[in-house]
Input
Amino acid sequence: MQRAQLKEFYGYGLIVLVLIAVQMYSVYIATTTDLILTWKHYAGFMATLLAGILWFIRKPDYVFYALGLTLILGYENLIGFTPTLSFTSTRYYFNSTALPISYQDFSMYMLIIWAYIAHSRLRTMAMRLVKRGV
Output
């Protein structure tokens, strides 16, 4: 692999390690307190495990998609990583209708880091979409 590809690949590994550490903390909190893990936690565990396996067998293209999908689902509050699944709730107004929008802060930060690491791949994908549309 080239130098840029190696940096991207090891960046993905670092993100997976941070997710595993946070999830281990979630399990620790759940076993030592009265907090219970929900199905969203277990879905997050499985998605992280899949990304970790893909990273371990050195498939950077698949890790890119698996991590992106995992973090977007976490951002949208569909899967969880942190113990309390805390989220920020806002309202978006469309005409006079208030639409509730919520997102997980931790997943948003991890998604931003993932986008920073994969910016060249994302830029290439965007350029292909723009050229295809013209």
